[in-house]
Amino acid sequence: MSANPIVHIKPLGFPWETLDPFLFCVYHDDAYPQANAQMGPAASLAGRDMGQDFSRKDGWSMYHGSTVPGFPPHPHRGFETVTIVRKGLIDHADSLGATARFGQGDVQWLTAGKGVVHSEMFPLLDQQNPNPLELFQIWLNLPAANKMADPHFTMFWSQDIPRLTATDAHGRSTEVAVIAGRMQNTDSAAPLAPPPDSWAAQADADVAIWTLRMAPGATWTLPAATGKDTRRKLYFFKGASVTVAGEAVASHAAIELRAGEAVELANSSSEQAEFLLLQGRPIGEPVVQYGPFVMNTQAEIAQTLADYRRTQFGGWSFTDDAPVHGREPARFARHPDGREERPAAAPAK
Where does the Pirin N-terminal domain lie (predicted)? Predict the structure, then answer.
């Protein structure tokens, strides 16, 4: 008889607790109101700790923004950010000179490597209706050999992300979006290529980042991972109640699973249920973190601080300290070499 595939179940906190090779995951779900003319919320900001507003007052926060919500320029070294935007838009700018506007299911994968400064602002464009924003930002560690790699950013436009829709015996569906990794024993589309210096680019790292959406009453079996030492965590973050390997989960939770076991999931409620899956083989190296810097030793952190004071990781070439990219909603990415890309037009129905 196989062991219980559930290692433990814990309530979701903030940020979400992760396992090596991941550092942490944050989930933002903000019910922003109508926009004002400056692409901020058309609402009073009284009572908020401006510059440090994580209050969720009225269902939303300004974070470190003062006019437009979001995160003005801040540095990173030694890891990667994977930003999955499910609703709304993010305006990106960085010290390499790159800019982007992405959202509506798009993903940005940024290798900070030896150092980058970037801003992530949340422009509100609709002056007549609410501007909901929903996103995950996942920090994925880099191994020591790649911590000083050149910075690099990759865009995965929504329509290019492989998606699998499985239907159970009762015709109820589960949709899986495969942002990293590949689902075993399926004919799903070819996997997306992670950045070249990412741990996820290692053939045996077994990194997977998936989102799952289950219809009311749906059942689906999460396939076993292939890696021998892979670790896996499943985050139940939306919906009323589910069962995981036959165990009832009646509140949102982080569920560590034995990665080598297939696990049956069931949405036991009358509303949609959603999960995020993070898995990978541990890097297994020391982690020393100082705010936005993640290295292997205290000496490397000291060197990082000295490097940042000296170089500002390339400095900030934008006139605005919280750049947003205008009122035109079109998504785009402009790379440091000037190359531009945009998502392909959706096929006509």
Answer: 53-140
Alpha-helix residue ranges (DSSP H) falling in 90-239: none
Report how far residue 107's alpha carbon sits from residue 86's, in angstroms, rounded to the nearest whole number.
Answer: 9
Percentage of the chain with pLDDT > 70? Answer: 97
What's the angle, vertex CA 85, arms to CA 337 and CA 173, rounded to 5?
130
Q: Can you identify the CATH homologous superfamily of domain 6-38+71-284?
A: Jelly Rolls (2.60.120.10)
All structural domains of the chain with their residue ranges: 6-38+71-284
Among the residue ranges 59-68, 177-186, 309-318, the one predicted with the least confidence is 177-186
Residue 119: both structure tokens together: 């801003």
Give pLDDT tens digits for 51-80: 999 999 999 999 999 999 999 999 999 999
Is 99 a residue whose pLDDT tops 50? yes
Residue 282 to residue 290: CA distance in whole angstroms: 21
Q: CA dist 237 to 14, 206, 213, Å?
A: 12, 23, 11
Percent helix, strand, coil in the chain (nearest 5)? 10, 40, 50
Give me Rg for the CA atoms of the chain.
20
What is d(CA 177, CA 222) in angstroms, rounded to the nearest whole number? Answer: 13
C-alpha closest to that of 121 among 67, 176, 58:
67
Is the entire prediction scored with pTM above 0.85?
A: yes
- As a whole number of angstroms, the distance between CA 53 and CA 62 comes to 5
pLDDT of residue 347: 55
